[in-house]
Amino acid sequence: MAEKILLVDDDRDTLRLVGLMLQRQGYEVRAASNGLQALSMAQVEKPDLILLDVMMPEMDGYEVARRLRADPATTEVPIIMFTAKTQVDDKVAGFEAGADDYLTKPTQPRELFAHMRAVLTRSTKKGAANSPTGERGYMVGVLAARGGLGVTTLTLNLGISLRDSYDKEVIVAEFRPGQGSMSLELGYQKPEGLNHLLQKKPTEIGTSEIEDELTTHDSGLRLLLASHQPHDSQYISAIATFEAIAHQLAYMARYIILDLGPSLTPVNDKVIKLCDEIIVIVEPVPQSIIHTKALIQDLISSGIGEGRITQVLVSRNRSGVQLSWSQVQEQLGRTIAVIFTPAPELAYQASTHNLPIVLQQPDSLTSQQFGKLAERITQRNRQ
């Protein structure tokens, strides 16, 4: 079957002439004259390669490339920037946007075809080596509008609840290099799994590479742990590698729970698009509700459907100054799915003994609340 090429350029003569050359080489050609049309056609046509111009009105090639990389349906499609922009900064911008290669106009047809063959060959090899196999699991991202709201605690205990209650394979992953706290809660001294993966190129990430970096907890939960050393925060810029890790993790367990930490970071902005469900933590104080409401609106604006967002209320203090759950719902304008009542003594004991809450006191009210959230996730997964 002929390889399909999507040619994107606002110049009609370029579309016609280059398209004709490609057809003579045996390629199946599709053409788009602007960025929005290119994004739509990439979804429908599923090309083997995209030849992308940079200088286009309304949406330039850099933005098109970024959107293609952000969409799970097109994130793996090879892109060659084919443009008259020749400066080094232009090329750097192209590669940072997600291009696999950068070729300047005018060029000899032989050079264009050689670049195309090289990129297509690399793509084929990468797909054969790193394409995950088997059934895709249910991926849940957990985040909050700001730090200190218990994202890690919820992620860890939810993972164990799913593992114990439903006897399914569960992986919990921290996507917070330099800010990891799960290892400290569990008593692991040198968590290096996420760091090792983030030092690789996206094309080097496969299920076997991730398996080598997983830690198995006594509960049977498998963990991809982040370092708590501040200098390891440098790896937060490896956005494409984070995407590759998340893509592979989705096929490695029945449930995958991601600790995404606070806010809609550039990493989170990409990874949440791979998630089947997003759990947003809110605490019952006015400032947190304002932040959380803005976060949820940003999630929706980024393309996350409202049905994929679940709100949980975490109340950490026994204080009369906190809002009730009904007041939180009213101010947030959204339904609270699960309420976690204050349990400071239990949380302290769990931290002291390096034992998650649901294992420290399995029959406690807090453990039951985690069980309720786990049950809700499994029900959504069956829908």
Short précis:
The protein has 16 helices and 13 strands. With 383 residues, it is α/β, with parallel strands linked by helices.
Task: Outline the fold blueprint.
Layout: E1 4-8, H1 12-24, E2 28-32, H2 35-45, E3 49-52, H3 61-70, E4 79-83, H4 88-97, E5 101-104, H5 109-130, E6 138-144, H6 151-166, E7 170-174, H7 182-186, H8 193-198, H9 207-211, E8 215-216, E9 222-224, H10 239-249, E10 255-262, H11 266-271, E11 277-282, H12 286-301, E12 309-314, H13 325-332, E13 336-340, H14 344-352, H15 357-360, H16 365-382
Parallel strand pairs: 1-2, 1-3, 3-4, 4-5, 6-10, 6-11, 7-9, 7-10, 11-12, 12-13
Antiparallel strand pairs: 8-9
General description of the model:
The chain is α/β, with parallel strands linked by helices and 383 residues long. The chain has two domains: 127 residues, Rossmann fold, CATH 3.40.50.2300; 245 residues, P-loop containing nucleotide triphosphate hydrolases (Rossmann fold). It is built from 16 helices and 13 strands. The chain has an eight-stranded mixed beta sheet, with helices on both faces. The longest helix is centred in the N-terminal third of the chain and has 22 residues. The two termini are 37 Å apart. The model has no long low-confidence stretch (mean pLDDT 90).
